[in-house]
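Homework help board

Subject: predicted structure for assignment chain

Our instructor gave us this sequence and asked us to write out the predicted structure in C-alpha cell form, then describe one feature. I got the C-alpha cells but I'm not sure how to describe them. Can anyone check?
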Amino acid sequence: MIFSGLPFKEVWKLTFQVNRQNTTRNAKRVLNKWIDDNWPTTETPFDKQIAYEIAFRRVQRPRIKIPATVKLATSWSPTQKTTTAAPTLWTTRYRSDKECARTKALSFLDHRDSLKSFIRYLFRTTQQKQLLTDEEAVQMRKIFWKLDRKNKNLFSSYDFMWELNKNYWGKPNVTLNIHQFTDDWQKNDPKAKLILWNLPDC
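My C-alpha cell output:
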C-alpha cells in the first residue's frame, strides 16, 4: 500500500477526491497537493512501523541505537511536531519516502489512464469492425473491469484473453481478432507501455 504509514481516514478522503476527477491531469494535481499538505515535515518523528523495523531488523541499515525519546505509540499523526533543530537520519528518510510515495502514486494514475485508453480502443474498434454488437462490446468491457477488480489492479492480458475465450460469442475468431487489435494498440499508442504496472523501486 503506497500510503500505509498515513492515517486511513485521510487516505480514504484522498482516494475519493482523486476518483472524482474527470482527467488524469486533474487527479495528479489533487494528489500532489494532498501529499504536500499532509506528508510529515522534517520535524516529525518517525512512526511506530519504522521503529519496529529498526528494533527487529526487518530492514537493512547500519546498526544504530533507537533514541530513548522515541515512543512506539499508536496516536502518531502527520501534524505532530517536535523541536528538532536539524534533519536527522529519520527526517531524511521521511523526505525520501515522500517523493517515493509520490512517484508510485503518479505512476499508478498513469497506469489507470492506460487501462481506460485500452478498453475504450477495444470497445470502439470491435464495433467499427463489426466484430461485436453494442451489447457484446458492453459485455466485453464488463469482463475487463471485473478482472481488474479481481486482480487488484494488476492487469493481465492473459487472464483477459482467457476470459474472453471462455465466453460464447456465437461467431468465430472473436478472441483472435481482439488479440490482434491489442497488438495494434500496443504498437501505436504511447500509453501502452504503462499498462503493465507494478510499484516502482525508489
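Reply (TA_rk): Your C-alpha cells look well-formed. For the description, you could write something like this. The chain has a mean pLDDT of 75. That's the kind of observation they're looking for.
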